[in-house]
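name: query_chain
kind: protein
chains: 1
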Amino acid sequence: MTIESNQTLEEQPLTVEEQDIKGSENGENQADKVPNQSANLEEIENVISEPKAEATPEPKVEDSTLSEFTPRAVRSAENNLDMESLPVTPELPNEKQPAYIQDTNYPDKPFQIQQSVSIEATSVTDKKIEWEVTFKSRDWAFYESIGGYYFIIPDGLKLTKLVDQSNTDILNHYKSEGAGGDEYRAFENGKGEFDAQWGRSAGFMDNAIFNKWKEENRFSKILFRDYRRDVQTVTYKLESVNL
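structure:
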């Protein structure tokens, strides 16, 4: 039987031998089309050797949000042994400041005296702040000479509790300025003896940051508890609401 030349033949399946022969022929054709590998290697080497720009590290941003809780210990007004412990906000430009200030004008064992008063915030919310003030009264020899504690309250806070080491709320005892010899005395900024009591407490330090805060009226009240003869470490718990 003959087949006309203009008719299209359907592809017939190849045998295994025919597939092997066709594959080898295709391989030879593809080998002729392989690009210049040496040129590609040169391009790769150029890419590898090309310097890369280094990423610039982002500067660290420090949180400058700090509180202003101000405890104060005095052994006696006559002896002028004074201690302040204040957190600090960045006030003075181009001058590195510690996050927490402990200062004293007492020349003997200044580091020990500076560490004798500490503050710890125990709860801070948008509406309420609680903190503890610890006095190491033994460092002040209250067992030898009567002393007292100053609490200088930041402006913008209303004190609601002042609990002493016996777990008693003594805030209601601070009703007025009283007089010398009274155990509980309260002084309000801009009135009466507030400035005088500042001078007998934080003002003794002559600390530039303390003085700046005072000039900016950052403090609303000074509470003074006198006639203390504590021989051990004592802790006061304070609570306030934001005004």
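note: Helices lie at 16-32, 37-49, 110-114, 194-200, 208-215.
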